[in-house]
Amino acid sequence: MAMDGGQSGGQEIIRFDGVSKFFGDFRALNGVDFTARAGERIVVCGPSGSGKSTLIRCINGLETHDAGKITVDGTALDGGRRALSKVRREVGMVFQQFNLFPHLTVMENLMLGPVRGRGLPEAEARALAMRYLARVRIPEQADKYPRHLSGGQQQRVAIARSLCMEPRIMLFDEPTSALDPEMISEVLDVMVELAQTGMTMVVVTHEMGFARKVADRMVFMDHGEIVETGPPEQVFANPQSRRCRDFLAKILNH
Amino acid sequence: MTRIALLAVILLLGGCSADWGWYVVNPQTPAGQTNLIFLLGGLKYTILMSVTAIAISVVLGLVVALPGLSSRRGLRMASRGYVELVRAVPVLVLILWVYYGLPQVSGLTIGVFWAGVIALALSDSAFEAEIFRAGIQSIAKGQYEAAYSVSLSHTDTMRFVILPQALRRILPALGNQLVYMLKMSSLVSVIGMQDLTRRANELVVTEYRPLEIYTILVLEYLLLILLVSAGVRWLERRMQTDAQG
Predict the structure, then answer these.
(1) Is A243 in CB contact (< 8 Å) with chain B?
(2) How far is it, in rounded angstroms, from Cα B100 to Cα B93?
(3) Which residue stretches of chain B have pLDDT < 50?
(4) Which residue of A has its CA nearest to B166?
(5) What whole-number distance in Å separates Cα of residue B29 and Cα of residue B56?
(6) How many whole angstroms separate alpha carbon A139 and alpha carbon A157?
(7) Using the beta-carbon criterion (under 8 Å), do A145 and B165 form an inter-chain contact?
(8) Contacts (Cβ under 8 Å, ≥6 apart) of B179
(9) B149 and A162: CB-CB below 8 Å?
(10) How far is the C-alpha of A136 from the C-alpha of A17, rounded, in Å?
(11) pLDDT of res. B239
């Protein structure tokens, strides 16, 4: 059973059919069906170990799935290299720990993908990088090394680095979980702006304020399954399942 | 601590002052000068041989290390096998085998210099491979994932993201290997390489002054290695500031 997108009526861009994933004996994903439409903004939440990170890491093939079928932007992830690199061209990813390249300057971090991955000439890649650095509001940091930036700035660089690939889909894996509280909003602001451009976004986060503001649809996961999905106002106001209700109670009332 | 050690050395050397015969290497006499120049002349070969060998062994070490990190079992086994085999052969044995054995097997004529270089490089490459493997494995998985997510191929990921970081981390270990190589190169004297050790040996045979000549030899190696250590430290600092901007 595939779930329909919320408000956005774009064409289907991500599709999971009965996807399972094991880590040894641990079942991280258990026959997951999931679809996202172009332009849709989806927030995935759930307790730790529920499979939410695995779900989005399967979208760009950082994890291989053991059963089922994943199609991203018309390409089936079949374990082949060609499909993988095609999908990764279209999918950007932002990580919890930023994962900037520490030995490269901010500018070099941004240019590496466009130059080596997309084959852009350096001048063009530089211009592109400047444009996206301006968009995440840190153009003045271009020549610094990541370690000289605050956590919030590093995560914004990481977002710009992904955007430089001009992807059709952006994945966020708990992008604010490693940040000091005062830096969370500067990252969320950038993400909200990105959402307004119509980017397809799948965001794993516990920032429910963000979910309310930008999500077209919430996906609640537990034990490797999608337990509940729907527009945020519906999921927040009237969660259908007990597990979802318990989870929301825990993260909203602390 | 340093002062006590220094004192001990002075006492030790002073204790045998009666037999001290520094004239052998006295730069103020023509004979002493000739001897000194002869001894120092070995420096050229020791350095040339060690540097050539380390350059080859670093490249070879990387070539051996990379398949050792592959997901394919066969490649991993081959890398492992090479390391275990080469590491098990004493350097001196390898020198003798390469110089006397390899020409017979291969039909090539191998000079003393290249026999020394090949043996030292082979022997060291196993250690270099282990150093590279450890260095590469110390880089966080997230670095690969970030590189893949901006569409870098595996080769580009290694070349632009993983190896530059690994290299910085293993620099002290590589410096160590260079020091080790300089010392091991003295073994090549047994096949007639005119290095520091060989020349000291030859002079001892004609001058019968082993204490003085071998003391000079010790000082030659000490000085050489202190210089290399300082060089490595300087390089480390430079790479550090590079990364800090």
Answers:
(1) no
(2) 10
(3) 244-245
(4) A103
(5) 42
(6) 10
(7) no
(8) B225, B228, B229
(9) yes
(10) 35
(11) 77
